[in-house]
Write the C-alpha cells for this entry.
Amino acid sequence: MPTIRQDDLIQSVADALQFISIYHPLDFVRAVKAAYDREESPAAKGALAQILINSRLCAEGRRPICQDTGMVVAFVKVGMGVRWEGNMSLADMVNEGVRRAYLNPDNPLRASVLADPAGARRNTRDNTPAVIHTELVPGDKLEITVAAKGGGSENKAHFTVLNPSDSIVDWVLETLPGMGAGWCPPGILGIGIGGTPEKALLLAKEALMAPIDIQELRQRGPSNRLEELRLELMDEVNALGIGAQGLGGLTTVLDVKILDYPTHAASLPVGLIPNCAATRHIHFTLDGSGPASFTPPPLSEWPAVAWDGPASARRVNLDTLTKAETATWKAGEQLLLSGRLLTGRDAAHKKLAEMVKAGQPLPVDFRNRFIYYVGPVDTVRDEAVGPAGPTTATRMDKFTDLMLGEQVGLIGMVGKSERGPEAIASIRAHGGVYCIAVGGAAYLVSKAIKSARVLAFPELGMEAVYEFIVEDMPVTVAVDSRGESVHERGPREWRMKIGKIPLARH
C-alpha cells in the first residue's frame, strides 16, 4: 500500500503551479497557431500573433504568461487505498503548495486573493486559499489537476435553469455576445449540463481541464449527442464574429468542452465558464515514489510568428499629448505609446472617488495624462516591472465620468475588452479616448515598460498607483473621441462576412 508523503504533495503542487504559469499547454499553442493561420481579420490576426509571441517569450524567460496569475482550483482524487505520512490536512497541504509557488523568489506570482470579500477585501499576500474539490475513488494513487483561473474569465461565468424542452444552443448564443471580450478570447468554453445548480457549474469548470481536440472530433465525426453539441456550438459561436480580443474575426473559441450529469425531470441546469488566452492547467499523479516532475517543452514547439503591427503604427509622446491630437485618432488605429503612463484599477479608483467626494486633494496629478488599468507581477532580477498586461476595463466604467471630468482631468485610458454605453457616452462627452492592449500578452507588454515607481496607495500592493515610463508600448484605439467603438463595429462586420464564408473555412 503506497504512502504519500506530505512534502511530496506540497512540492508537487508548488512545482505544478510554477510550471503552468510559464508554459502554455502545447495543445493550446497549436490551436492558436491554427487560428492565426486561417484568420482574415487584420486586427484579430495581430492579437493572435502577440499571444503566440508572448507565449514563447514566457517559455524562454520563465516568467508568467499573464499578470493575473489566477486563483488556484484543485481537483483532487484520493485513492481509498492511499496512506499518508504527515500531520497536515489535505487542504493545508495543497494550500502550502500554493503559498510556496506564489512566493517563489525566482518567479513570484501575483497575489490576487482577497479575504473578507464583502468587507475589507484584504489581500492574503500569498494567493491562498485555493478552491479544492476532493473525491474518494478506488485505487492506491493520488490524482490532482490544478488550474489557475484569472478573474477576467471567471467573471464571465453564467448559469441558468432552462425548461427541459429549451435549446442549450440558443441560450449559449444569446449569452456569449453579452460576455464581451473581458474573458480574453480566443479561449475554450466549458459547459456543464444537469445535476443541480452548483453541480452544473462545477462540471463546466472541470470540463475545461481536458485537452483541445475539437478538430480531431470533427475529422472522425461525433459518436453521441454531447459530441454533436460540441461541434454545433463551436461553429455557431465562431459565426458570431466576436474574434480574438473581441475585435471581430473568424475564431472566438478554440474548443467547446461539455460534461453532463443526470438531473431532475423538471430541470435543465446549465453552467458556462470560459477559459481565456492564459489557459493554465496540468494533471499529475502521486504513487508514493516521490514528488511529480514536470518537463518543459522544447522551444521548437513554439511557432515562429511575424508581427508587423508596430511598422504601421502611429508613435505617440504621452508627455506632450493634447486633446487636439487625440481627437485625430480613429477607432481601430494602432499606436505606440512612449513617455509617462499612470496606472490604477478597481481599488485605486474607489479610493480616488472617495477622496474627490470628501473634497480631499488627490495624491497624483492626473490632468492630461493616460491611465493604464493593470496590476503587475512583482519584479525579478533586472526587470523594471513584471508581466503587466491589461485588466478588464468595464469594471472601471462607473468611474469613467469622474476620471475624465474636470475634477480629475484624464484624457485617455488603456485596458482590455469593450466599454459599456455609460463609459462610451462619457468618453464622447469629454473628448477622451480608450485604447486596448492585448490580454494574454502580459510579458510582451512589460518589455515596453522601462521603469516603474509607486506614486500612491502602496498598501494596495499590485493595485497601487504606479508611474511607468514606457517606450513604444503597442495599443489599439478601441473607442475614439467621437464614441466609435471597435468592439461594436468589428464583431458586427465580421458576423456579416462570416455568413458569406463557406463553413469549412471557419
About this structure: The domain at 309-491 is CATH 3.20.130.10 (fumarase).
